[in-house]
Amino acid sequence: MLTHANGDAAIDQYIRCIRPAIQKYGNNDRRNVLIHGQFIRKDQLDSLKEMKVIPSLFPMATFAGRLV
User: Fold this and answer.
1) Which residues does 27 contact at the CB level (< 8 Å), separation at least 6?
2) DSSP SS3 for 59
3) What is the Cα–Cα distance from 68 to 63, expressed in whole angstroms?
4) CA–CA separation, 31 vs 16, rounded Å?
5) Model pTM?
6) Which residues are within 8 A (CB) of 67 and not within 5 positions of it... i.e. 6 or more apart?
7) Among 9, 28, 34, 48, which one is most buried in terms of CB atoms within 10 A?
């Protein structure tokens, strides 16, 4: 599952939603990815690691509008 969540509140919500699904269905045959988590906190990274969620971060998206 590829999920866009940008901002720590959105990432908190993502963690709250995906944790019970992983506990119920497992995570052995999935590669869940969090996309665009520029404003992720360290504790959220720890949670993603625990759940084997791959963070795909794009910090330059914050500045991309200014580069055009």
Assistant:
1) 51, 52
2) coil
3) 9
4) 18
5) 0.79
6) 60
7) 34
Query: Is the pLDDT confidence value at 67 over 90?
Result: no
At residue 54, φ and ψ (nearest 5 deg) are: -90, 120
The long-range contacts involving 16-22, CB below 8 angstroms and separated by at least 24 positions, are 18/51, 18/53, 19/47, 19/51, 22/51
- Return the residue matching tokens 């991309």: 64
pLDDT, one tens digit per residue, over 1-21 is 899 998 899 999 999 999 999
Tokens 């990815």 correspond to what residue?
A: 33
Domain-wise residue ranges, the chain? 2-60
